[in-house]
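Q: Protein A?
A:
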Amino acid sequence: MGTHKIELLKGTSQLHGTYYIEFSLGKHQVGDEHWRETSAYLNADNFDPLIKLFRKHVPNFDFIGFIIIPAVQWQKIILNLTRLQHELKTISNYQALQKVLHLGEYHPEIFQKPFDKFIKEFGIMIDDLRSWLELQLETHDFITFLGL
């Protein structure tokens, strides 16, 4: 998990290194610029718990590559992010959380935050991502997922 914050980053000013998932506006093509100021970013560890949700709605989801995702698929992802936010409010420990999310690096023995603080911060990150996606889909038909 490390010491990075659990948050959605907008623009590049807060990025440190390259261990981020980028949500790039429009249809990203091979050779297009990465690290756009108009993109949103999640530390890869913070995205990891959401892998199940993305695999459910994005055929051939690849954590490494880039995937052009149309608005109709993003709407399904947004709906499930909203459901996940509500579900997080009912979960009281890491064992129950593991049934809902792919925890990967978020293993209880190495996680340094109290569970309730993690749930709060992770819920805020999900809400920020959902809100950012909704806003961008008002003017964009596609948002590209750029993996590691």
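Q: Protein B?
A:
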Amino acid sequence: MKKSFLILGLFIAILGTINSCKKVTPTAMEIDKSKTATITGYVHAHLSLVTWQNDNVWENAPAGTKMFISVANNQYVNGAEGYSIYETTVGSDGKYSFNVPADINGVDVEVSLVDFEYNQEQAQWDPVESEWVLDGTERKIYTVSSWNPNLTVGSVKIKDFYYSAN
């Protein structure tokens, strides 16, 4: 009888041990966000051909224009999958800024800007005024190429973007 209780007790102990062994799934990827690099600059576009023709200047891109930085997670953590995406918007002064996690070996990033549409002011030469004057507006789609810098801890990259109207 004692032998039966001993075997039953041993069986329960083994069964309890088996049930408590659960598959442990890895925790979420941890990125050290305390070490960063900065990307900053201005975003420009020809929103008015009158201003461009008369003053030869670029206007600021519209406030709120979205910008993104994409970084492959495996640059932060070996074997990690997917991408970390960081977002900012252009201010009313045309300025933008990102603080992005980086490391001493550097991380390759892609900076991209969202296309936007705008009713661009058209210009016509006025011989009486001897200057370019407003001649209505025309819907334009503004695009700009992405940029792929390498960022190391503490670095500051300055990049101005210039949209093209199509």
